[in-house]
Design goal:
It is built from 1 helix and 11 strands; from the N terminus they run βββββββββαββ. With 132 residues, it is mostly beta strands.
Length: 132
């Protein structure tokens, strides 16, 4: 059984920072990919960053240089560090997991790692608001 629980969202001024956390259970049994996605009101869900069991990291161009993803396997937690936040980063952020026989980087490349339909397990989401 795979479960994901996000935390760390909130309201912040433009230029500020937040760190999102996602505690994941049940993902280590096979190859995996853990990703962060976001969805703003009226928009489609988009991939932000992902890391897989090969250690490959994929980051969306829209946040590259500002956001980073990391995984602490001892704590079963994946983090999304968000710096220099902008109003357009306002969205609900979701943590997701893909569990399979091979990591997503081998199957779909960097773009596949940021594709929502590749992920079967999702957290409830945590809202992030960037506003002055």
């Amino acid at each position: 059984q795979v479960s994901l629980v996000e935390s760390g969202g909130g309201s912040v001024l433009p230029g500020g920072f937040l760190r999102l956390s996602c505690v994941v259970s049940g993902y280590k049994v096979m190859s995996y990919c853990l990703g962060w996605f976001r969805q703003a009101p009226g928009k489609v869900r988009e991939g932000v960053a992902a890391i897989d069991s090969d250690g490959v990291i994929s980051v969306a161009d829209s946040v590259k240089g500002r956001f980073s993803i990391s995984l602490d396997n001892a704590k079963n937690t994946v983090y999304l560090q968000m710096d220099n936040l902008k109003p357009e980063d306002t969205a609900t952020y979701y943590c997701a997991a893909d569990i399979g026989t091979a990591p997503l980087s081998r199957l779909g490349g960097l773009s596949g790692m940021l594709t929502p339909r590749e992920y079967a397990y999702w957290g409830q989401g945590t809202p992030v608001t960037v506003s002055s």
